[in-house]
Amino acid sequence: MIAISYIEWSDDTIKRFRKKLLTWYDENKRDLPWRKDTNPYHVFISEIMLQQTQVNTVIDYYLKFIEAFPTVFDLAQAPEDKLMAVWQGLGYYSRARNMQAAAQQIVFDYKGQWPKTAKELEKLKGIGPYTSCAIASISFGEVEPAIDGNAFRVFARLLKIEDDIAKPKTKTIFYDIVKKIIDPNRPGDFNQAIMDLGSSYMRAKNPLIEQSPVYEFDASGQDGTCLNYPVKTKKKPPQKIPYYGFIIKTSEGYLMEKRPKTGILANFLMFPLVKKTLTEIESFENYFKSNYAVEIKNAQLSDDLKVIHTFTHQQWQISLVVADLVAFDNSNFIEVTSEELDYLNLSALQKKMNKILA
DNA sequence: AATACGTGGGC
DNA sequence: TGCCCAAGTAT
Question: Could you say which nucleotides of strand C lie within 7 A of any protein CB atom?
Fold first, then answer.
């Protein structure tokens, strides 16, 4: 058993830290659209969008989303295409579906009344340990630390916490530490102040160490080791997967395929993709006919047309094949006009392929 | 516990 | 370029 050590603060230090942090926050907090009030619906929408997504990216999406679905009731009854129209391009699309499921839970299971504790909030779809604590603290004043990437980094640096934040059990270590430090009188502001601190002075790269408002509490900043924190083991690089991507021309546009209901880019319309396997496809025409009941002709593999798209865990290397449609008998496929391509709900990958057509 | 799940930006 | 990151959750 290795003893994990980190800096421990006295009660007095904790009190001075809260005061310093919140004073700084009161004077310097970012003016963000979801900070105009503490309406739980607003906090909920922003927190879901902010999962693994940067503030600058979220701002426009948030404004459009609130305009399209002003209340939890609007979201609960929204048609899927309208929901996806607002979310397209943001990524992690299950967030949008879970978010609507959560809205329906609020409306039907909770009669429109938001639960006020992290424990209850975590029962909602798409709301986990971080988001439940964020909503509970910001909207309802519950004293719960919201441990996100910022909190990991800020407290790891302040206290020189050596635990690997890539390991799930480390979350409870940080939770227990921050639970003692969080200001019981202003838990929501405390959590948000830590996030603002983590995105400015104590950012991942190029931190502003000595100018930090809490430099006097910053152990790793003072001894020049702050870039060693937080400790985090590296993830595996994305697996490279070669595909053929088919641009199948129709009289007025292209043939598209509806992706499976589960998995990556679920339900999106996309140009048909076929994994390249060890056994080379002998003929694109025969492949489409026997596998999809889709008849094509003039299939031409282009060495110039390649699209590389990197997800978190996969990199798709797509070699494009141009062909002409003859006929098809498969409900998973649909003819789309060139004009429709411009306003359909599409993934960033499909939009990347669209650009090649122009 | 480990992996699936998107995207855009920075260096 | 390739790698890492950015307010995580579900399974």
Answer: 2-10
pLDDT digits (tens, 9 = 90+) for A64-89: 999 999 999 999 999 999 999 999 99
Answer yes or no: is pLDDT of A25 > 60. yes
Give this prediction's pTM: 0.96
Closest residue, by C-alpha, to the C1' of B11: A205
Per the CB < 8 A criterion, the answer to whether A226 and A155 are in contact is: no
Give the CA-to-C1' distance from A314 to B4 in angstroms: 10
- For residue A337, what is the DSSP state? E
What's the CA–C1' distance between A282 and B1, in Å?
42
Q: Kindly indicate the confidence band of residue A1, based on its pLDDT and cuts at 50, 70 and 90.
A: very low
Domain A239-357: assigned CATH number: 3.90.79.10
- What torsion do the CA atoms of A121, A127, A129, A131 make, to the nearest 10 degrees? -90
For chain A, what are the domain ranges? 11-228, 239-357
Q: Which residue is nearest to nucleotide B10 (CA to C1')?
A: A205
Using the structure, give the distance in angstroms from the CA atom of A62 to the C1' atom of B7, rounded to a whole number: 16
A177-227 pLDDT tens trace: 999 999 999 999 999 999 999 999 999 999 999 999 999 999 999 999 999
Homologous superfamily of A11-228 in CATH? Answer: Hypothetical protein; domain 2 (1.10.340.30)
Catalytic residue set of A: 47
Q: Which window residues (33-62, chain A) lie with Cβ within 7 Å of strand B?
A: 52-54, 56-57
